[in-house]
Amino acid sequence: MSRENCLDYLEKRGHLPFSQAPFCPIDSLILSVCAYARFEGLLPGPTSGVTLPFRQAVAQLTAQDGWDHTGVLMADQIPRLVERAAACPRFARVRLGCWESILDEETGTQFAALTWFLPDGTLYLAFRGTDDSLVGWKECFRMAFTFPIPAQKLAEDYLAQVAAHHLGKLRLGGHSKGGNLAVWAAVHADPMVRRRILRVDSHDGPGFTRDLTGTPAYQALAHRIRVYVPQSSLVGALLHQDRHCQIIRSHGTGTVAQHDPFSWEVEGTGYHPLPHRSAFGERSAQAVRLWLASLTPEEVEEFVDVLFDLLSAGHARTLTDITSALADNALSMARAYQALDRATRREIRSCLRRMLVALGAVSRPQPARPRHPGPFRRKQSTDFD
Q1: End-to-end CA distance of the chain
Q2: Is residue 30's pLDDT more than 80?
Q3: In angstroms, rounded to a whole number, what is the distance separating the alpha carbons of residues 32 and 30?
Q4: Tens of pLDDT along 47-59?
Q5: Crossing angle (nearest 10°) for helices 134-142 and 177-187
Q6: In sequence order, what are the beta bridge partners of 113?
Q7: Does position 268 have pLDDT exceeding 80, yes or no?
Q8: Shortest CA distance to 319 belongs to which of 61, 62, 138?
Q9: Which pLDDT belongs to residue 372?
Q10: Pair type for strands 52-53 and 95-104
Q11: Is residue 103 within 8 Å of residue 109, measured between CB atoms?
C-alpha cells in the first residue's frame, strides 16, 4: 500500500508548472501548511502592493536563527516542506505577501495569514492554524463556547482587505483552525467578494459552534467548499461540520497523529479517499460531543479559563515552554490548583468526571434510547451532521 504524502507529490510533480498541471488539492495543502512558517517581519502587509518571490522570502527566512523550530504537537516536517516547495520549479514564479500576524494575550487572539500570488493570476489566501502558543490553544478551545472567536473576525477582515487591494479570483485555505478561518471568512464575505472565490479548502479544520451549512451564504458557496477529514482524526469531526466532508486516508496512529498533514496519503493530484470514518474516530468524537453536551457553555468557559491559568502558572507562554521544564511547571501547576477556592476545584473535578463518563459511554455499545441519560440530559448541540 502506498504511503506517499505531500512531500512525495513535490518530488514527482514539482517540476510541472501550473500551465501544464492545474492547481490541485495537494497544492492547496502545501500552501496552507507553509503558512506555519515564521514570515513575521519579512513580508509586507495586506494593503501593500509589494510582493516577494517565494524563493527570496524563504532565503531570508532560513537565514534567521531558530526558523525551523515548530513546537510541540506541530508537524516537524514543516521546515522541510517549505524549503522543498520554494526550490521546486512548480512554485518558481509564485510570489507572496499580505502578511498579517497577531498574538494578543489580553484578547486571547492568535491569528496569521498570508497571500500567494499564483502565475495564473489567482490569489491563494492561506490562514495559519493553531501554533505553539498557549494563547492559540486557548482560543482554539474557546471555539466550544464562543461564537465567533477573535481569529474568525480577523479572518473576515483579512479577506476584505486583500480583496479590496488586489484583483483576481480568490482561493482560500488552511490547516486545522486555519481551515475553519478560511470557511468562516468566505461565508461572511461581501457578496461581491464571494463571487470572486473559486475554492475554499479546510484541511481537517474543526466545525462551528452553530451550524452554518444551512445559511444562504454557505449554500451559495457549498459547491466550492471542500472539507477534508482523515478517517480517525478528532479535530475535523468536532462541532457542526459539513455533512459532505471528504474522508481521506491517513497512516497516522491515533486521533492526534492523524491531524498531521504529512500522514495524509496522496494519490496523484488528490488524496486517497475513503467511504466513511473509522469506528475508533467516531467513538472518540462522540466522547467529546457527549462531554460538551453534559456541560453548560458557562461551565466549559470556566473549565478552559482555569485549565490555561494552571498551564501558565509557571510563566510558560508556549507548549514548548511547559515541556522544556516539565517538572518545574508541574509543581507550579499543582500549587496553583491548590490555591483555587474550594468551589472552583469542585467544578473542575466535576468536569473531569463527566469527561470520564463520556469516554466510558462510547467504549461500549449504546442503546438507541438510553433509559438513564444521567448528566447528558440537555439536547446535544454539537452533532456531527
Answers
A1: 31
A2: yes
A3: 5
A4: 888 899 999 999 9
A5: 50
A6: 100, 127
A7: yes
A8: 138
A9: 45
A10: antiparallel
A11: yes
Side chain identity at 181, as an amino acid letter? L
Residue type, 369: R
DSSP secondary structure letter of residue 264: B
- pLDDT score recorded for residue 364: 52
Q: Work out the number of other CB atoms within 10 angstroms of the CB of residue 367.
A: 6
Q: What are phi and psi of 50, to 5 degrees?
A: -90, 135
- Could you give the CA distance from residue 379 to residue 288 in angstroms, rounded to a whole number? 15
Nearest residue to 118 (alpha-carbon basis) of 32, 53, 36: 53
Q: Which three cell numbers stand for residue 249?
A: 486516508
Kind and range of the H or E run holding 256:
none
Range picked from 154-168, 207-221, 328-342 for highest mean pLDDT: 154-168
Cα angle for residues 40, 184, 318 (degrees, 5° grid): 40
Cβ-proximal residues to 317 (8 Å cutoff; 6+ apart), any chain: 133, 134, 135
**What is the DSSP code string of 147-187?**
SS-HHHHHHHHHHHHHHHH--S-EEEEEETHHHHHHHHHHH
* pLDDT tens-digit map of 71-85: 877 889 999 999 999
Candidates 303, 328, 300, 302; CA nearest to 313 is 328
Task: Give phi and psi for 285, each to the nearest 5.
Answer: -65, -40
Mean pLDDT of 317-346: 91
Q: What is the DSSP letter of 320?
A: H
pLDDT more than 70, % of the chain: 93
The whole-angstrom separation of Cα 330 and Cα 311 is: 8
For 257, counting Cβ atoms within 10 Å of its Cβ (0-12 exposed, 13-18 middle, 19+ buried), the class is: middle
- 157, 100 Cβ separation under 8 angstroms: no
CA angle 141, 144, 146 (to 5 degrees): 95
Number of Cβ within 10 Å of residue 50's Cβ equals 10
145, 210 Cβ separation under 8 angstroms: no
Residue 265 in contact with residue 271, Cβ under 8 Å?
yes
In what order do the strands lie in the sheet containing 109-117? 52-53, 95-104, 109-117, 123-127, 170-175, 197-203, 225-230, 246-248
β-pair partners for 126:
114, 173
Nearest-angstrom CA–CA distance, 30 and 25:
9
